[in-house]
Amino acid sequence: MLKLALTVLILFWFCLKPESAQAHPVRAFVTNQGSHDVSVVDLDNGTEIARISLPASPAGVAVDQRFGMVFLTSPDGSAVTKLDALTLTVRAQQDVGGGPVGIAVDPFGQRVYVSDWYNNQLIVLDAQDLKVLHRIPVGHVPAGIVLSPDGRQIYLAERDDNVVGVFSSQTLERIGSIPVGQHPFGLAIDVQGNQLVAVNVQSNSVSLIDIAHRVVRGTVQVGISPYCAVFSKDGRVFVTNQHSDSVSMIEFDSATVLKTVPVGAFPEGIEIDGDQLFVVSWMEEELDVMDLKTLKILRRIPVGKNSRGFGRFIWSGNPVSN
Amino acid sequence: MRLTQAIVGFTAITLFSFLSPVAEAHGPTRQKVTEEITINASPDAVWKVVGDFGGIANWHPAVEKSETTKGNEIGSTRTLAIKGGGKMVEEIEGYDAENKVIKIRAQDGGAVPASNFSMMMAVTAEGSGSKVTWRGAFYRAYTNNDPPPDQNDEAAVKAVTGVFKSGLESLKAKIEKK
Lengths: 322, 178
Fold this sequence. Notes:
Helix content of chain A: under 10%
Oligomer: heterodimer
CATH superfamily of chain A: YVTN repeat-like/Quinoprotein amine dehydrogenase
CATH class of chain A: Mainly Beta
Shape of chain B: globular
Number of strands of chain B: 7
Largest interface: A-B, 20 and 16 residues
CATH class of chain B: Alpha Beta
Number of strands of chain A: 29
């Protein structure tokens, strides 16, 4: 009986989509480290509609698709901010200390995970009010974070250890360590949660990880100083190369670079929504909108100063969207 | 009146003591500098000078001597002896003669107080002459919290700006004199 009640409750939970009950705009939230704000870009008409001030040097971003909430880190301001994606009001702000950089929100919109660059810890926050729930000691200089689609596993780039740490979200204990290339920064996971990539800034490569076995299946050389990555639904991986001003398209299964295309200089954050690829250029201070098939730039949307967009920065309302 | 002053004073002190630890907790944030100059010469003529990786001592006022390992090949390094002491070791990361773009990465610990310092120089047509763009991306030299004043963000930006500005002015003077 209890089990049935629980099942009903869980089903109800998954059907609960307050924001997507009505059509809402698709928006990008690009963190601007130089102007200390976040650019809100309406992707239906390709214009910046707002710029919202944040504590110093915002970098990391994560979007809770279900509830339409955006979570942002401010490494210099030692803060995490929760922003309502629709009304664009700040819902909560928390001083977490240290240098919060990477950020991810679980698929249920319950918890937010933040990497503290200076204090070598993973901070677990309540997504509702951003109260700090736990601080877990991790490896050196933690950066990118992704969660498995079921929210059970946390993958963390432990940059100066050249490792991707695997943690259980239930016990908050380390359950694995995957050695990768030199200085992993951005991570990306496929929709099914079978494949993970770590972007190795210093070795100019991407480690392709088989999640079930927690091993590196292959390593692909890309451009110079690669930074972030994203999976397309058909299993391709797109990687930004900061010093090459380009994006590499990789086929995971064959571990080969299929194509490399030029983008705005110093590309950092990268995202996919529908049939478009979005790349944040730190140097040009723009969001490049590209056709996912042709990889041609369709438009360049100006954003704030020293734009980063490190993390998942598009609110599409689709919970399984990359 | 006194009470108001006292309240204002107290508020200021409270605010200050609250804000100061936050303000001091600055971590390294990547900085950038872009400098441009127009030169009254054809892009080809300007690229001949700018695209000569080892030739920087011929035009940069701060560089005494420059030696390269492999000329203009990607991976070639140049060791710059800086006037008044110090050196910089730099490597070609990218070289595009067709579009007249050279990308260079400096090794850490050189004369410029910056780390992870990469730069690019590009020559484009501008009117009947050329425009040279020199831009750099870098972190400050001191990569932990609370840097000393000579190794903070401002010091790095100031130094790089000086290197680029003085270099471009001297480059223009040299080429236009020919």
